[in-house]
Amino acid sequence: MMAAHIIRPTGYLKNILGRDEKIEFVTRQHWLVLLGRIFFPLFWCAVIFFGVGATQLFGYAEPPQLFYAYGLIILPAVPLIWRYMSWHNHCFVMTSRRVIQMHGVFDKTVSDSLLEKLNDVKTEQSLLGRILGYGNIVILTASEAVVNDLKMISRPLAFKRAMLEAKEALDHPVEPA
Predict the structure, then answer these.
(1) pLDDT of residue 34
(2) pTM of the model
(3) pLDDT value of residue 139
(4) Are residues 97 and 165 in the same domain?
(5) Into how many domains does the chain fold?
(6) Domain that holds residue 162
(7) Within this chain, do residues 62 and 119 fall inside the same structural domain, yes or no?
(8) Based on the domain organization, do 119 and 75 belong to the same domain?
(9) Fewer beta carbons within 10 angstroms: which end of the chain, N or C?
(10) Is 3 exposed, middle or buried (0-12, 13-18, 19+ CB in 10 A)?
(11) What does DSSP assign to residue 112?
(12) Closest among 11, 6, 4, 2 to 94, alpha carbons compared
């Protein structure tokens, strides 16, 4: 289908896939979401790093003090790492049967929409989203209730195309000749 290369499921994703279910497309939220989440911890890491470097440069601190001062970087680094792991583990997976939204580092939350129940797909992209390659996808069922709302995902048009192709393949299977 859409995937140019074979995507091999690992970890938790491997455990939730059904027999003969194939991964067609995987994406996650755009890197701007990550940047928004890590901006302040990254800023404070830089402030501490350059602040301690300046005290060393001007001779205000000795090596043992510098060691402890540089150790202060751990304070903003812990939330920075946690926010990266949270962003990295929030993924959107298109399989041959369903759309899976999975997130969580230790505790996992999984939402899935079966392709056979798919009635309508709505794509929203701002001008900036079109330029940078992100957008929202809203998946609707026959009852018009929102089943999945995929916010700020990377490559939303490719994801939607993979979803529609997988639905078409599910509705009209190709018979072997």
Answers:
(1) 93
(2) 0.78
(3) 85
(4) yes
(5) 2
(6) 11-29+91-171
(7) no
(8) no
(9) C
(10) middle
(11) E
(12) 2
